[in-house]
Amino acid sequence: MKFITKLVFVLLLTSMALLGYGQGNPAKELNIGDTCPDLSLSLVNHKYKKTKLNEIKKSLIILDFWTLSCSGCILSFPKLDSLQHRFDSKIQILLMNEMDSEERILNFFERRKTKSGAKYSLPSSFGDSIAKKLFKHRSIPHYVWLDSALRIVAITGPQEIVGQNIQSFLNGEKISLPFKNDYGIDEDALFSHSGILNKAHIESQVTFTGFANGLGPHVRSFTNNAGRIYRQYWINYPIIGIYKDAYKAYLPKSQILVEVKDMKRFRQEDATAEWNTKDLYCFEMINNSDDLINFEENLKANLNQFFGLSAKLERRFVKCYVLTSKKPRIFKKPDGTEQSNNLRESGQHMKFVKNMSLAAFVSSLNQIMSNPIINGTNYKGRLDMQFEPDVFNDILKLENALKKYGFDLIEETREMEVFMITDKQ
């Protein structure tokens, strides 16, 4: 009887340990070298609706934390899908989503098909709240690399998710990738972890660097009790992204004009796009003595000094295209589902808009095309449209595609507000 009592007690403790992650107990944050618990997963876009992490028998499992609201996450899917096909029998890229419902994620994958009808091969979990607690992060996408024993071998940002790194791991080589650790980046002034600086004693500070390993793109401003900005930073941001924020130039891509000798620095306009670390920068300014106006002007002056640029908002006559609809046309009646589109995603999947207003469609076009698109119609309804993957490669392809839906693009010259970035004189 004594032996049986001890055995039951041991089994009870074991069960409590195994169930602890699912019973509201605080999940211990994991790090490189730790072993990930055998999480129970609910999946979409996979042959099994439920599985355990340990049942994914692969040499490498990469957990990709994402949400439907993260454009950078979605923009990376074509690359991830390609890597999954390339290393299919040896790796599993597993999308981890705790925010969105099963139905919304299913709809997302169902709409993203190639001309042949193929979908992304990436499975996604949903409804899991434990994994995010185990792997704390502030920015997404966020990647956790696990070996076949579920040991954590790397925690990275998107720039490390490349075939060369995956192949090196599969070859048995020891990989040493930059550790993405952005959970506490708001607490201290950038790069002030030496113990010498105390953020409470900083009167004025400007920090400017290139790309910082281990951090995702992040921007934030801080205000004091009087509502005045005293601190602003950008981490791993492209020049245009920094300047748009600093000058409050919240215009679409088609109304941003860059006229500089060295255009290489401006190849990347979006912090969430495919990463080229040479084009990303970190900048922080702290000034506890200035008022709001002086802070903003000093911020611009410091940016212009470091980058050797000048910038301003002005009105100009520019070439644009006016969207018109001369002939009445019966559009496909939307089915009442939520508005969605994949217009800015790369890859060979068909482009689509679903239950989208024409105004929202034109707004999306202005984030893609080089010349402004103006809505010259009075159409107030919703649209379902589908386009070839390369429709945005040039204006003629777009014009021909829109004609099928009763629209024309008319070239004009109009005066409008633009954001000018030039070399500093």
UniProtKB/TrEMBL annotation:
Keywords: Cytochrome c-type biogenesis, Disulfide bond, Redox-active center, Signal. GO terms for biological process: cytochrome complex assembly. GO terms for molecular function: antioxidant activity; oxidoreductase activity. The keyword Disulfide bond applies. The keyword Heme does not apply. Its main location: other. Residues 32-124 form the Alkyl hydroperoxide reductase subunit C/ Thiol specific antioxidant domain. Gene3D superfamilies: Glutaredoxin (3.40.30.10). It is found in: Cell envelope. GO terms for cellular component: cell envelope. Residues 1-22 form the signal peptide. This is DUF3738 domain-containing protein. It comes from Pedobacter frigoris. The lineage of its organism: Bacteria, Pseudomonadati, Bacteroidota, Sphingobacteriia, Sphingobacteriales.
